[in-house]
Structures are given as C-alpha cells and as structure tokens.
Amino acid sequence: MANAPSFAGIPIIPVLLLLLSTFSVSSSSSSSPANGSDTDLAALLAFKSQLADPLGVLAGNCRWIGVSCSPCRHRVTALSLSGIPLVGPLSPHLGNLSFLSVLNITYANLTGSIPPELGRLHRLRHLRLKGNCLSNDIPADLGNLTRLDFFSLSLNQLSGQIHPQLLLRLHNLREIYLYGNYLSGQIPPNLFNNTPSMCYISFDNNRLSGPISPNLLFHLQKLEIISLSGNDLSGQIPPYLFSNTPSLREIYISANTLSGHIPPNLLIHLQKLEIIS
Ligand SMILES: *[C@@H]1O[C@H](CO)[C@@H](O)[C@H](O)[C@H]1NC(C)=O
Ligand SMILES: *[C@@H]1O[C@H](CO)[C@@H](O)[C@H](O)[C@H]1NC(C)=O
Ligand SMILES: *[C@@H]1O[C@H](CO)[C@@H](O)[C@H](O)[C@H]1NC(C)=O
Ligand SMILES: *[C@@H]1O[C@H](CO)[C@@H](O)[C@H](O)[C@H]1NC(C)=O
Ligand SMILES: *[C@@H]1O[C@H](CO)[C@@H](O)[C@H](O)[C@H]1NC(C)=O
User: Fold this and answer.
1) Is the CB of residue 234 less than 8 Å from the CB of residue 212?
2) Nearest C-alpha to atom 5 of ligand 4 is from which residue?
3) Tell me: the pLDDT tens digits for 171-196?
4) Which residues, 6+ apart, have CB-to-CB distance to 103 below 8 Å?
5) Which of 98, 97, 90 is nearest to 116 (CA)?
6) Among residues 24, 31, 48, 155, which one has the fewest Cβ atoms lying within 10 Å of its Cβ?
7) What sign does the dihedral 188-175-206-249 (CA atoms) show?
8) CA 153, CA 156: separation in Å to the nearest integer?
9) Rounded distance between C-alpha atoms, residue 110 and residue 107, angstroms
10) Per the database record, which ranges form the Leucine-rich repeat-containing N-terminal plant-type domain (predicted)?
11) Is 3's pLDDT higher than 50?
12) pTM of the full predicted structure?
C-alpha cells in the first residue's frame, strides 16, 4: 500500500516515507465529541478534495506518503511532498492541523492563494511551498506563526507588498526565501527588527522598489547571506547598512538601480565577507 507510483519519466521524490499508520476512519468515536485526530483526518480529506492529483498519490484513507504523525497522540505533525503534481489550491482546512510542525510541499503545481488559515498552525517551524504557482499576496496571518524558523515561498507568482508586520513576531526565524515572485513595494524598514537569529535572506528576482532603509539589517548579528539582486531598489546603499552584521559572508545586490558606491567602511566591519556581487 501507498507505494510511490512510478510514472515513466516523471521524477517522484517523496521526502518522508513514514506512513500514516494510526488513522482509521472505521474506529468508532460516536460516543465522544470530535477529537483532534478526527479533525486532522477531516483536514487531510479536505486538502485532498481540492487537488486533481493525476498520479493518485493521495489515494486511500490518508495513509499517504509524506504524512507523519506523532506516535502517541495520533496527530499529523508533518506534511511533506515534493515533485508530485497535486494540481490545485491549498485547502483552508489545513489550518486545523494544529500539531503540524512541517508543511513542506514543493514543485507540486499548487495554485491559488495561500490560505490565511495557515496562520493558525501555531506549532509550525518549517513552511516551505517553493516552486508552485501560488498567487496573490502573502497573508499577514503568516505573521502569527511565532515558532517558524524556516520560511520559503520562493518561485511562485506571489505579488503585492511584504506586510510590514509579517516577521515582527517570528523571533526564531533563521531563514527566509521569497525569491522569484512578483513582490513589489519597499522592503519594510522594520521588517527584521525582531528576528535576531536570521542567517539567510533571499528576496532576489522580485519587483521590490524604493530605497533600502539604513537600519534594515541593524539587528541581524548572525546574518550570513543576503540577496536582493534583480529588483528595482533605488537610491544609495546606506553607508552603515552592514555596520552591525559581523557574520556576513555573501552579499548580492546587483541588477537594481542603486546608485553610489559600496560603502568604504564595508570591509572593516565585514571580516568574513567572501562574495559581493
Ligand atoms: C480520537 O479519535 C480517534 C479516531 O476516531 C481514536 O482512535 C482515538 O482513540 C481518540 N482519542 C481520544 C483521546 O479520544
Ligand atoms: C522538505 O523537503 C525537502 C525537499 O523535498 C527536503 O530536502 C527537506 O529535508 C524537507 N524538510 C523538512 C523539514 O522536512
Ligand atoms: C476546520 O477548518 C475549516 C475551514 O477553515 C472549518 O470550516 C472547519 O469547521 C474546521 N473544523 C473542523 C473540526 O474541521
Ligand atoms: C506542473 O507545472 C509544470 C511547470 O509549470 C508544468 O510543466 C507541468 O505540466 C505541470 N503539471 C501538471 C500535471 O499540471
Ligand atoms: C492572527 O493574529 C491576528 C491578531 O492577533 C488575528 O486577528 C488573526 O485572526 C490571526 N490569524 C489567524 C489565521 O489565526
């Protein structure tokens, strides 16, 4: 059961091979009110019902490849599918998977908007929806995911501005990847004020515009890599932009309309710098 369907020429790379062994629609819970495990089952079925799933990967009663559960509570803790065409929108019901810590669905032809309900996944640490066709804006509700440490929505068709409060409560965030979308407007000046653990920022190849705030990176002492290239950023590179980022190794800012020159003090502050482009 739940063998990965092999389809000539189509790479199928299920990441987690743990199978959901604990769900059972047949168990009688009629005496008790709907418990969390029932809610999870309903959410998975709603998720599946929105998707075309031409390879039939989500066949059967949620004993799918890519679903992991906690052994004791029988709650879904991870949903991880990569390179499998699911083809369709993400169900808002996914917001009911209240024990989910990993949502990792990449290169799966997901369409439509990101449901704001995902902001209810308060245990989520890893959000990765790279390489789909998701559109519209990034819901501000994702700013409620206070345990997030990895945030990737790269290579989609997301547009609109980055909400100024998107990261203000994500104190544990270490990596954010939004490259390859159509995001526009200024990078909010206070975006990274409360993300002291941030190591990687990748916002390249969007339509971000306007000046870079002089204090944008001031709180990022652990920052190692930042990529802002291929946007419409303009104005000067603020002279002290990198004055408090001693861990920085790589800076990518080409293909913008920035003026002026690389701040002369850059090399004094950045002893680990290897690449600037
Ligand atoms: C919750 O429901 C599931 C399936 O209906 C059942 O197996 C499990 O024992 C129930 N758990 C609790 C704590 O009631
Ligand atoms: C998410 O999926 C990618 C690629 O399929 C995999 O390399 C990565 O380990 C997964 N991450 C988690 C936290 O499951
Ligand atoms: C789960 O989420 C959906 C949509 O967000 C909602 O309509 C539904 O009532 C929720 N609860 C359960 C127990 O499925
Ligand atoms: C999934 O998306 C890719 C790239 O956009 C496309 O080439 C492919 O035909 C799509 N597959 C399905 C089943 O829609
Ligand atoms: C996120 O938090 C805000 C403010 O507390 C709240 O209004 C909103 O409903 C929350 N969103 C979700 C999806 O839980």
Assistant:
1) no
2) 109
3) 999 999 999 999 999 999 999 999 99
4) 78, 79, 94, 118, 121, 124, 126, 127, 128, 129
5) 90
6) 31
7) positive
8) 7
9) 8
10) 38-70
11) no
12) 0.86
Residues in the ligand 2 pocket, defined by CB under 6 Å: 13, 15, 80, 82, 102, 104, 106, 126, 128
Half-sphere exposure of 153 (CA within 13 A, CB side): 21
Tell me the C-alpha distance between 106 and 112, whole Å.
Answer: 15
Task: Give 259's contacts (C-beta < 8 A, 6+ positions apart).
Answer: 234, 235, 236
Q: Is 233 helix (H, G, I), strand (E, B) or coil?
A: strand
pLDDT at position 20 over 50: no
> In sequence order, which residues have a C-beta less than 8 Å from that of residue 30 and are 6 or more positions away?
none
Atom 1 (ligand 2): residue with closest C-alpha? Answer: 104
pLDDT at 149: 98
3-state secondary structure 146-180: CCCCEEECCCCEEEEECCCCCCCCCCCCCEEECCC
Ligand 3 neighbour 42 (Cβ under 6 A)? yes
Q: Which of 144, 169, 170 to mutate to test the pocket of ligand 5 (most atoms within 8 A of CB)?
A: 144
Q: Tell me the pLDDT band of 71, cut-offs 50, 70 and 90.
A: confident
Name the token pair of 78.
């991870």
